[in-house]
Amino acid sequence: SEKSFVMLKPDAVSRRLVGKILARFEEKGLQIVAVKLLQISKNLAEEHYGEHKDKPFFNSLIEYITSAPSLALVIKGDDVISVIRKIVGATNPKEADLGTIRGDFAMDMGRNIIHASDSLESAKREITLFFKENEVIDYDISDNLWIYE
Ligand code: GTP
Ligand code: MG
């Protein structure tokens, strides 16, 4: 199995949606292996979203992400990148399917409540950016027997 970096953005935390969102990942059979509540600094936000630095929405994105605490997570499971992107839904919440997190809980691109890594390479980069090595716990859960064939 692989690991992905997931972040509940300031709107998710401030709207008290943390429990509901984490329940979706747990119910699916994915496993939380690291978690941290933090208010992201401007530097960290700019580093995390570096690929978008020339986009017209970059400044408002950085303002949004640093505006209040976020919940950073590392989540483990088989094909975890694509499984999580599916659970999260399309970037634009108005176009995201109902049943996805963005489709069910959000309205605007600039308030789309959650981030998830888009590849194993970005997951590695993002996990290192937000967590020290000893903050990611590689444990096994016995009910994985009932999740995976
Ligand atoms: P992340 O998981 O947050 O990286 O979202 P994503 O991978 O679905 O989208 P992408 O990496 O392309 O964009 C990063 C974030 O920038 C999005 O989640 C949005 O919050 C924001 N964003 C992307 N495109 C737009 C846009 O056209 N307008 C605005 N206001 N924000 C945008
Ligand atoms: Mg992205």
UniProtKB/TrEMBL annotation:
GO cellular component, one term: cytoplasm
Active site location: 115
Protein name: Nucleoside diphosphate kinase
Cofactor(s) annotated in UniProt: Mg(2+)
Entry keyword Mitochondrion: no
Any single GO BP term: UTP biosynthetic process
Record bears the keyword Cytoplasm: yes
Domain Nucleoside diphosphate kinase-like: 1-138
Reactions mediated catalytically: a ribonucleoside 5'-diphosphate + ATP = a ribonucleoside 5'-triphosphate + ADP; a 2'-deoxyribonucleoside 5'-diphosphate + ATP = a 2'-deoxyribonucleoside 5'-triphosphate + ADP
Keywords, ordered alphabetically: ATP-binding, Cytoplasm, Kinase, Magnesium, Metal-binding, Nucleotide metabolism, Nucleotide-binding, Phosphoprotein, Transferase
Family: Belongs to the NDK family.
Species, as recorded: Methanobrevibacter curvatus
Binding residue positions for ATP: 9, 57, 85, 91, 102, 112
Subcellular location: Cytoplasm
EC numbers: 2.7.4.6
Record GO terms (molecular function): ATP binding; metal ion binding; nucleoside diphosphate kinase activity
Function, as annotated: Major role in the synthesis of nucleoside triphosphates other than ATP. The ATP gamma phosphate is transferred to the NDP beta phosphate via a ping-pong mechanism, using a phosphorylated active-site intermediate.
EC class name: transferase
PANTHER family membership: NUCLEOSIDE DIPHOSPHATE KINASE
Origin: domain of life: Archaea
